[in-house]
Amino acid sequence: MTTLAAAAAGLRMLAPDQRYGRVVAVRGALIEVDGLAGAARIGSRVMLRAPSGPVEAEVIGLDRGIAQLMAFNEPDGIASGSRADLIAGQEGLRPSAAWLGRVVDGLGRPADGKGPLPQGPELRRIKAAPPPASSRSRVGSRIETGVRALDLFAPLCRGQRLGLFAGSGVGKSTLLSMLARWTECDVAVIGLIGERGREVQEFIQDDLGEEGLARSVVVVATSDEPALLRRQAAWTTLAVAEHFRDQGLEVLCLMDSVTRFAMAQREIGLAGGEPPATKGYTPTVFAELPRLLERAGPGAPGEGTITGLFTVLVDGDDHNEPVADAVRGILDGHVVITRQIAERGRYPAIDVLRSVSRTLPHCLSDEDNHIRLAARRELATWKDMEELVRLGAYRAGSSAEVDRAVALAPRIEDLLRQDRRQRSFAAQDFAALAAILENTHEDAL
Description:
One of its GO terms (cellular component) is type III protein secretion system complex. By secondary structure, the chain is an alpha/beta fold.
């Protein structure tokens, strides 16, 4: 009887059926499987059997009984007739506080060689819906980023989502590292999506450091990994951030970059036969962007917040290209980093006149707003007249307003110059900016 009872218990633990199919075609990154009709769903996981070992894949499309798959790793050894087992059960993550200080891949597996990850009690979906608008709290109070140009001209609030827009090689990743170290938060969740492989350890060891890593979870999917894993890493980043938000914590979510998430989604869509639309981007790209970005923000009353900072790599320095334009309309502000300012040697190369925080003016005091607007007027006047002044076409004394901007704008620019290892403090920065505007001769720094 004991043996029969044990056998019955074992049978009850087995899945009621085991569905599998066979590979019938491989077209580039797309793998077609027959035999899963009626069982496979969009997003279902499938394990492909290959001589080199199992290959995990995901169903991205269905076509007349044929399941279309893409693999999470290189499908080496997959051949026509290879067995494809449908994986039963719900896919998700089980994050916990023990994940702090760890580096994981897009599937939530350890990627730092420090052993297995302790699993939390709650299963959390990797691709989750944003919270209902009616149940969310409002954006909270201002938080200091430690970056002078942002704290003065594009302040960040708890639960706000800010985009960092830049071309390649103008200091976007350096600015992100400054924000990761200094922005006030309880937990930081950092997604490196499509990042260069050699820069991952540099960011973790040099930019983040031991102290920064101790309060962070880093999700990594490098540029050489399949598009499916790069997209998954972005979803995993938000899923981990949502876990800590639901614990009542103030979470800082950094993602570099949203553009590479969009590129991965474009690659997946094109492989599945989706028609290209704007500049080759498929329609699902513009559907997935708000679903991803809206997951950041304030939680429900009693929960924490996810303050999101998302980088956008603008194509050819065109800030109106499709992804940049779509993201700018979703987020609560944008910070523009320009090549012209970087070429002048002023870092971070933030163009404060083109940068906008949609929490202004309410997040600053009346006095700080007065100082900020006065400084913007001086910089705007200088920008309008800069070329004439440099060419000698403007004669001093012709306009008191221009004369004042010519005197003050270079000093404001010097104030905005900041070394990557130098943390600033908002109260001191506003005092220094006020001193410049009063045209005093004391050291504004």
